[in-house]
Structure formats: structure tokens, C-alpha cells
Amino acid sequence: MNIRRMTLPLLLLVASVPLAADEHVITTSSHRLTEIANGVYLAQTTAPLFNSNSLVIVNEDDVVVVDSHITPDKARELIQSIRAITSNPITTLINTHFHYDHAHGNQVFGDDVQIIGHEYTRMKMAGTPLQETQYVLATRRNKETIANVTTMLENTTDEERRKGLKNYLDLALTQEKSWAEIQPVAPDTTLDHRMTIFRGSREIQLHFLGRAHTGGDVTVYLPAEKLAFTGDMMLQGPSFLGDGYVDEWVQTLENLKGLPFETIVPGHGNPFTDRDLIDHVQAYYEDLWGKVAKMHEQDIPVGDAAREVDMTNHASTLGVRRKGVDPQAVGRIYARLEGSD
């Protein structure tokens, strides 16, 4: 089996966009820190692992971090990397939503760091987050990866290939160990619709614009910098829909347009300035909802609907060139049509 053709859950699947030549980039042993505004850094893991972006906001006297990464180990690496740009203490952590890749590093920030999130995020994180479907599936896929790569190693004699497989296996085993350490920590401070915090001369607004990727997505907006960190509510294309409110997402994105931002920093991938992308994603969600709703009316099973739904009419705007969508997206739309919250 070719490792390049395997479904490897550790790999970051979001395409990277080249950074502008004039951007200030600091690379540590674990992270790339790109200064995207004065004192505002996009923090991305350099290892070939699935992980969230984090936003690091360096103020006169402190640091505010948005999203804590996928595991305690990755959060520790993030905190260590922040020391490469400032000695200011981290006082505040903001969770854009509850998903494991954005919030399961919370525990390493310490009791003296305030954690802010939406009320829905606190409810989810204070409940049974290690039983959430996406976390369970991710840990299961990692175990499968370990087993598959171990078998490939046993059946491979080429030394160069063995080296690549061994490196990848080490990453998966490290991830397994770090996941075992997770003790979820919920936000201790919550918002319903809006909160504003001030750190020195910096104004940081937190907005709940409506249900979308989850029931409690928070957008972090810096008005002076005209920058919005959207988490997974708005990527450069469709987001994961398995926990989403596809029927409400279009309006939520319309509300996002009301913020006078110039740059969006997404929860995965690199920043972008093309506001037309919001229109294209709205059109995709509206179209997907309509097509799946018709299949629901015809009692087409979820798996069949997922294979048959055709979204390739969005090829020119979002690069959708293959028929079919994620079965979890179809299952979630069916559940919403049947009254599930």
C-alpha cells in the first residue's frame, strides 16, 4: 500500500496558501508564527499533523491566545513557541468552539489563565467531550493508522521507505500518548452574544453571530486591525458539517459580513482577504441543503444520498470536482430536517 494514498488522519488536510514575502515569520522547533498585524500572530504547527490554527495577540502587558490546539502536548509546544516572540504572561485563552482540535489543549494553560467561550462551548466541554463523535472517530482512526503503518513496516525492505514510515509511526504514537493525557477543561467565563475585552490599548471583540459549524461559534474581531478570527465557521471553502446547522449557517455568514474586517484568519489554513469566498460558501450550503432535503423527501438512505449528491456546479468557485459529500454532512442535515437540535 502506498502511504501517500492512505487516509492518514494525522495529516493536515487543508491546503496551504503561500505567505506573502513581506510577512514577518518566526519558526520554532514546533511552530510557524506569522505576524499578520502589529503584535498579532497566526500560530501553526510545523509537524505534518492535523491541528487547529491558534491566534496569538501580544499586548503591552500580556498575551491573549485563541484556541489551544488538539492535545496538551501541542498546547505546551504552542506556549513554548510564544516565548520566542514575547516574555509577557498569557492571561487569557479564548475557545472559538468545543471541537477537540481547538480546545483539548486547555488544561496546560493553568488555573491563573482565564478561559472564555460561548455558553454552548462550556456546556459541551463541561459535559462528556471525550464521548463526542468526532473525538471518538479521530482516536479510532489514529489507532488504525498505527496498526496499518506497523504492518507496512513489517512488509517493507526498502530503507528509505522504512525511514518515512517509521517517522510517521512515531508521530502517530506520540499523538496516542498525548491524547491519553487529555483532561478537558471548560471555559470559566462565557458569553451569549457579545463580549469586549481591553488589554492595554488593544480592543478585542468576541461575537456570536449565530449557529453554524457548532451551536456556539465565536468570532474574535480586532477592530483596529480589521481582522476576524473565525475558527471553523468560515474557512476558504466548506467546513466540516457533522455538528453543523446548515440551515442557519447562511444567515450566520451574512451576519459576519456586517463586521468591517479586511482579513479573515480561519481555524485551518492561511489568512485571506477575498470577501467573495463568503458568498461562494453561502451558495454551497444553501444548494447542499436543498439537494439533500429532496433526497430526504424520497427516503433515500444517508449513505446513498452522500454518494449521489452532486455539488460539482461549485467547481469554478470552490473547486468541487467530484460527486458526493461526507456522509456525516448528509446525516446531520437529515437529523435537522427531522427536528434534531
Explain this structure.
There is one protein chain. The N and C termini lie far apart (41 Å). Helix 1 links the parallel strand 5 and strand 6. The chain is of the alpha/beta class and 341 residues long. The longest helix has 22 residues, at 133-154. The radius of gyration is 20 Å and the shape is globular. It has two domains: 3-129 and 183-273, 4-Layer Sandwich (Metallo-beta-lactamase, Chain A), CATH 3.60.15.10; 285-337, no CATH class. The strands form two sheets. Strands 1-2-3-4-5-6-7-8 form an eight-stranded mixed β-sheet. The protein has a five-stranded mixed β-sheet with strand order 9-10-11-12-13, with no helix packed on it. Helix 6 (246-256) runs antiparallel to helix 7 (276-297), helix 7 packs across helix 10 (327-337) and helix 8 (302-308) packs across helix 10. It has helices spanning 72-82, 100-103, 119-126, 133-154, 159-180, 246-256, 276-297, 302-308, 315-318, 327-337, and strands spanning 24-27, 31-37, 40-45, 54-58, 63-66, 90-94, 114-118, 189-191, 194-199, 202-207, 219-222, 227-231, 263-266. The chain contains ten helices and 13 strands. Residues 1-21 have low confidence and may be disordered.
